[in-house]
Amino acid sequence: MKKYIGKSLIFAINIFLAAIGIMVIKDHDETGSSEKTDTLVDQTGMSPEISGSQSAISADRENTLRNLNNTPSQLSSQAVTTKTTTAKTTTTPASSGSSSKKTKTS
């Protein structure tokens, strides 16, 4: 009987820990999303020149991506071929530095 009580107690503790973990993750996600909205609010206070430049860059990027998606046939990749050749090498025996003739030195 003690065996079953111990197992059920461990099971209950695991469920409790899982519930706490889920609550922590949800709380973390909510604070993270509020930080994201804070940064968006800060960006709206930009000068009109910067905002216009960013809008132009974004529009240009969108147009480029739209053109690439509509006409992918214009972007053909070039096939690169490489030719590998092996060179035939021959080895020659190295000559020794001393000659076979003996000389008499005085």
SSE inventory with pairings:
Elements: H1 2-43, H2 48-70
Distance between the termini: 110 Å
Shape: flat
What is the count of β-strands? 0
In angstroms, what is the radius of gyration? Answer: 39 Å
Strand content: under 5%
Q: Main beta sheet, described?
A: none
Individual helix count: 2
Q: What is the string of SSEs from the N terminus onward?
A: HH
Oligomer: single chain
The average pLDDT value, as a whole number, equals 75
* DSSP helix fraction: 55-70%
Structural class: mainly alpha
Contiguous runs where pLDDT drops below 50 for at least 5 residues: none
Provide tags for this entry.
106 residues, 61% helix
Describe, in plain words, how this protein is organized in 3D.
- By secondary structure, the chain is mostly helical.
- It has a domain at 2-68.
- It contains two helices and no strands.
- It has helices spanning 2-43, 48-70.
- The longest helix has 42 residues, at 2-43.
- The radius of gyration is 39 Å and the shape is flat.
- 0% of the residues are buried.
- The mean pLDDT is 75.
Outline:
Helices cover 61% and strands 0% of the residues. It is mainly alpha-helical. The relative contact order is 0.03.
